[in-house]
Design brief:
There is one protein chain. This protein is α/β, with parallel strands linked by helices. The protein is 45% helix and 15% strand. The protein has ten helices and seven strands. The chain has a seven-stranded parallel β-sheet with strand order 3-2-1-4-5-6-7, with helices on both faces. Strand 5, helix 7 and strand 6 form a beta-alpha-beta unit. It is globular, with a radius of gyration of 17 Å. It starts with 9 loop residues before the first strand and ends in a 7-residue tail after the last strand.
Length: 260
């Protein structure tokens, strides 16, 4: 169910061409925000923008690798040129299994490639910091802003293998908490993280995660698979004035897969 809580707001969603990011962009659009999505594949972004823009408002797709500060600067510049500012940042872009290869991604820690580790950290952690840094002047100047970081329930579960990914998402939680204190000094600017479980996005469905997904669902309080649409309500709430006094939080949205 949607309303118009974000009317007049400008929302930038990184990794907005697929999966969770695309679902969030769609929901924020339904809440009447103007939408900018970024990703690394132009065709995917253009198709997503066309699917999301069901009304008379366009969705602006911009190709950007969030591990590159110059590309981030150019992206935010284009968003400002079109919409004048950025009010809401959803830091969703992340390096996952499909980016570095399933076999390499799930090696034990003593077999990980240094290059894969560095790539994951550059996108999943450094990219969030750089995107937040670039849009913050808009939020500071108007004493209003929302930063929503995508973390993961894996940080609470202590699962082995995939160490680089799990570590990066734990860093996202720390980044969220520290940034909330710094940003909150400048008015109604909140910073929060969402921690999904194993969400049935394209990335997950492209790999053989059916057995793992079903096993996790059996151990959750709500015993069913999780989909991108299960996360969008929390994102829309955090982006709105309904959550104006919520900041520095890491909110698990996983059907009770982890409890903390």
């Amino acid at each position: 169910m949607s309303c118009e809580r974000l009317k007049g707001r400008i929302a930038l969603i990184t990794g907005g061409g697929r999966g969770i990011g695309k679902a969030m962009a769609k929901r924020l659009y339904q809440e009447k925000a103007n939408i900018v999505i970024c990703g690394t594949t132009e065709d995917v972004l253009k198709q997503a923008a066309e699917e999301i823009a069901t009304e008379d408002r366009e969705v602006l797709p911009i190709v950007c690798d969030v591990s590159d500060a110059n590309q981030i600067k150019a992206m935010v510049g284009k968003a400002r040129e079109r919409f004048g500012k950025v009010d809401i940042l959803v830091n969703n872009a992340a390096v996952m299994l499909r980016h570095i290869g399933f076999e390499r991604a799930v090696r034990p820690f003593y077999e990980l490639d240094e290059a894969d580790w560095d790539r994951v950290m550059a996108v999943n952690v450094k990219g969030m910091w750089m995107c937040s840094r670039e849009v913050f002047p808009d939020m500071r100047s108007q004493n209003w802003g929302r930063i929503i970081n995508m973390a993961s329930d894996t940080v609470y579960m202590g699962r082995g293998n995939g160490l680089q990914y799990i570590t990066s998402k734990a860093a996202v939680v720390g980044l969220t908490r520290a940034l909330a204190f710094e940003a909150g000094k400048f008015g109604n600017i909140t910073v929060n993280a969402i921690c999904p479980g194993l969400t049935q996005s394209e990335t997950v469905q492209e790999h053989d995660f059916k057995q793992m997904s079903e096993e996790l669902a059996k151990n959750s309080a709500i015993q069913r698979l999780e989909y991108p649409e299960d996360l969008v309500g929390t994102a829309a709430w955090l982006a709105s004035d309904d959550a104006a006094f919520v900041t520095g939080q890491a909110i698990s949205v996983s059907g009770g897969l982890s409890l903390h």
